[in-house]
Amino acid sequence: MVMYCLDTNIVLDLFKGDEVVSLKVGNLEKEGEIYLTTITLCEIYKGIYLYSEGVFREKELEDLEHYLESVKIIWIWNQAESLERCILI
């Protein structure tokens, strides 16, 4: 099976509803599995916590958690260390 690793910008475009990106990623999902790296995950979390607040932040976190159910994570470091490094970024 083919593995596709999405860049942070692609994931953000998906969340923004970019139809072209959504179509391309949808086609990739038919061909293989979608992955994110812990670096991408950290960048997305950082963006949510730095630039969102209140109900909007909660919605973005819920959307991200829902999306993460459909992808696999490539742990660059072990899982606990990766989450700790997210906090430090």
Describe the structure in your own words:
This protein is α/β, with parallel strands linked by helices and 89 residues long. The protein has one domain: 5'-nuclease (Rossmann fold), CATH 3.40.50.1010. The protein is 69% helix and 15% strand. The protein has five helices and three strands. The chain has helices at residues 8-16, 19-31, 38-51, 54-68, 79-88, and strands spanning 2-5, 32-37, 72-74. The protein has a three-stranded parallel β-sheet with strand order 1-2-3. The longest helix has 15 residues, at 54-68. The protein is globular. The termini are far apart. The relative contact order is 0.18. The model has no long low-confidence stretch (mean pLDDT 87).
Strand order of the largest sheet: 1-2-3
Mean pLDDT rating: 87
Output the structural class. Answer: alpha/beta
Give the SSE string. Answer: EHHEHHEH
Q: Tell me the distance between the termini.
A: 33 Å
Approximate strand percentage: 5-15%
Binned, the helix content reads 55-70%
Q: DSSP helix count?
A: 5
CATH superfamily: 5'-nuclease
| Cα-based radius of gyration, to the nearest Å | 13 Å
Task: Kindly state the number of beta strands.
Answer: 3
